[in-house]
């Protein structure tokens, strides 16, 4: 199954905290994310690298595990990749931060291919250059499965508020590029841990733009994100009526209640029902031991 069909939430944990490495499975997040980049001070990166690769070399696990390495434009990023190749660590997904060109993903793909040919890649778009090149980045390599929006870094670089309106252009462009390339779009974290209503609202807005998942930075945010990504009962009911009418064999543009329904709206209704079915499957089917990203 593509990553976009199995990743509503990705719970990030700094790679210095091994007691929390399996927290994603405990709280119901779809993917656990070990962080070697911003969550780890420079002096502790060797220790974090060792802890993360040791954990990822342990074979069977109940949730897919992702690893955010450092940028390949840094020494730490290169050391992260060498550690992956030398230790037998097998993450399901590798996140590459601050991607600004297709060449960075192509380089990572080439480095991983001999020993880790099945690992999926996600590109984090979090700089103005990355946003400007996002369409080219989205088609960099078949190994790329999604684009992740990094709002905090973009806000800091541009000196603009980390709020919805200033971030809207970047979000919309990333979601559009992901959709055009057939990739998943995963939204930036929400950083106020106390306001779960705001997490849910931001996730709903991101879903309306085309995002299918969100990075979460606290276990309490997982349920809020999952609620926001699930179609509401009214939308599901309307979609069922649209599809039922479309399947009566008459076709064309038809009236349904006070609205007109044609082929594009039928296609949209089918997507709503497919999303509802996906959510039901994710909530009712336990992840099997040893699941890989492509098997969930």
The biggest sheet amounts to: 8 strands, parallel, barrel
| Low-pLDDT regions | 287-296
Derived structural class: alpha/beta
What is the count of distinct domains?
A: 2
What is the residue-mean pLDDT, rounded to a whole number? 86
Q: Termini, distance in Å?
A: 6 Å
In CATH, the homologous superfamily of the largest domain goes by the name Phosphoenolpyruvate-binding domains
CATH fold topology of the largest domain: TIM Barrel
What order do the SSEs take from the amino end to the carboxyl end, as H and E? EHEHEHEHEHHEHHEHEHHEEH
| Helical stretch tally | 12
Strand elements, count: 10
Description:
- The chain is α/β, with parallel strands linked by helices and 296 residues long.
- It folds into two domains: 227 residues, TIM Barrel, CATH 3.20.20; 66 residues, no CATH class.
- It is built from twelve helices and ten strands.
- The strands form two sheets. The protein has an eight-stranded parallel barrel, surrounded by five helices.
- β9 and β10 form a beta hairpin.
- α2 packs parallel to α3, α9 runs parallel beside α10 and α11 crosses α12.
- The N and C termini lie close together (6 Å).
């Amino acid at each position: 199954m593509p990553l976009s069909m199995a990743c509503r939430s990705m719970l990030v944990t700094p790679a210095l905290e091994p007691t929390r490495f399996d927290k994603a499975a405990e709280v119901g997040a779809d993917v656990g994310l070990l962080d070697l980049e911003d969550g780890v001070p420079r002096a502790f990166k060797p220790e974090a690298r060792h802890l993360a690769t040791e954990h990822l070399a342990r074979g069977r696990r109940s949730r897919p595990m992702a690893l955010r390495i450092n940028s390949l434009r840094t020494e730490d990023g290169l050391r992260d990749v060498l550690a992956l190749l030398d230790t037998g660590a097998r993450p399901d997904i590798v996140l590459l931060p601050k991607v600004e060109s297709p060449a960075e993903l192509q380089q990572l793909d080439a480095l991983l291919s001999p020993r880790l040919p099945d690992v999926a890649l996600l590109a984090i778009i979090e700089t103005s250059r990355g946003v400007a090149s996002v369409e080219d980045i989205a088609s960099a390599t078949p190994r790329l499965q999604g684009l992740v929006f990094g709002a905090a870094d973009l806000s800091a670089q541009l000196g603009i508020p980390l709020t919805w309106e200033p971030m809207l252009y970047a979000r919309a462009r990333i979601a559009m590029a992901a959709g055009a390339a057939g990739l998943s779009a995963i939204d930036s974290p929400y950083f106020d841990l106390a306001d779960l209503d705001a997490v849910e609202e931001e996730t709903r807005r991101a879903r309306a733009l085309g995002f299918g998942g969100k990075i979460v930075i606290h276990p309490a945010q997982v349920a809020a994100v999952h609620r926001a990504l699930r179609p509401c009962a009214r939308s599901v009911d309307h979609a069922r009526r649209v599809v039922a009418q479309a399947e009566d064999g008459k076709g064309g543009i038809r009236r349904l209640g006070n609205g007109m329904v044609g082929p594009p709206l039928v296609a949209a209704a089918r997507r709503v029902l497919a999303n509802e079915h996906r959510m039901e499957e994710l909530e009712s089917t336990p992840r099997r031991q040893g699941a890989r990203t492509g098997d969930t």
